[in-house]
Amino acid sequence: MTDTIEIRGGVDLPARRENIELYTSDGLTLVGELALPLEAEPVATLVCLHPLPTAGGFMDSHVLRKAAGRLPALADVAVLRFNFRGTTSPRGTSDGEFGEGIHEEADLAAAMAFVTERALPNPWLLGWSFGTEVTLKYGLQFPVEGAILLSPPLHRTSDAEVAAWAGSGKRLVAIIPELDDYLRPAEAVQRFASVPELEFVAVEGGRHLWVGESQVSRVLSEIVARVNPGVLPLPTTY
Asked: Which of these, 34, 196, 199, 209, is most buried using a 10 Å CB contact count?
C-alpha cells in the first residue's frame, strides 16, 4: 500500500512530462515543458503565459509550476509552460530578448502551433500578470476555448483590446485579488465593463503573487471550474 501524498507546496504528482522546444516565426527557439495525465487522455489544455520576465517571472512562477505539478493528475488537464523570449528558468533559456509585450505575440503563436501539431484538446490561455497582457492583446486570433486571467494589471492592454473580447464567443475569466498591487476588484469591474459576458472572480484576501497554499488552491480550483468542473472539489491528498 502506497503512502498518501499531501498536496501542497511544490509536490509533483504523477504525469507524463516532456521537455519541449517551440519555434517562432522570427527564428527563435523557446524552451518549455508539456505535462500530460499519466494514463488518461487530457480533456483540456492550459497554455500558460508567465509573469513579467524583467521582474523575475518565468515558466516556473509558482502558480504555473503548481498547475503543471497537480492538474494533470487531479483534473486530466494537459499543461503547457514555456519561457518567453529571453527568459531563463531551470529548464533553460529561450532565445532572444524581452519584447515589451509586442514581440511575445510570436511566442504565443509558436505555442499555439505546438498545440495544433500535437492535437491537444480544448485549449485555454492561462495568463498571469504580464502573461494576461499577451493573452488579451493576441489571444483572440487563436482557436482557444477562452482565457483565464490571474492578476491582470492592464498596463500594456488598451481599452479597445479588452473590448474586442465582447461577443467573441471565447470565454474570458478575470481572477482579481482583493489586495492586488496593480488592479483591485472595484477598478477591475470598470476596466472590464466593455465585456458583459466576463466571468469575474474577486478573491478575498488575495494578493498579486498568490502566495500561500490557500490562495494557490483557490486559484487552481477556479481554473478547473472552467476547464473540467466535474472533478471538483480538488482533493488535498493523493
From this structure: 34
Name the CATH superfamily housing domain 18-226.
Answer: Alpha/Beta hydrolase fold, catalytic domain (3.40.50.1820)
Backbone phi, psi, residue 192, to 5°: -100, 10
From the list 144, 197, 153, the residue with the least C-alpha distance to 173 is 197
> In sequence order, what DSSP letters do the residues of 181-230 get, joined into one string?
SS--HHHHHHHTTT-TT-EEEEETT--TT--SHHHHHHHHHHHHHHH-GG
Instruction: Judge if the upstream peptide bond of residue 90 is cis by omega within 30 degrees of 0.
Output: no
Identify the bridge partners of residue 78 per DSSP, sorted by sequence position: 45
Phi-psi region of 189 (alpha: psi -120 to 50; beta: other; left: phi over 0): alpha
**What grid cell was written down for 153?**
494589471
Cell of 211: 502566495
pLDDT, tens digit, for every residue of 170-208? 999 999 999 999 999 999 999 999 999 999 999 999 999
pTM: 0.97
Q: Which cell goes with 146? A: 477562452
What lies within 8 Å, CB to CB, of 174 at 6+ separation is 149, 152, 188, 192, 198, 199, 200, 201
CA-to-CA separations, 160 to 156, 187, 194, in angstroms, rounded = 12, 17, 9
Q: What is the rounded distance in angstroms from the CA atom of residue 96 to the CA atom of residue 29? A: 8
Residue spans of beta strands (DSSP E) within 37-109:
44-49, 77-82, 88-89, 92-93
Residue 112 grid coordinates: 499555439
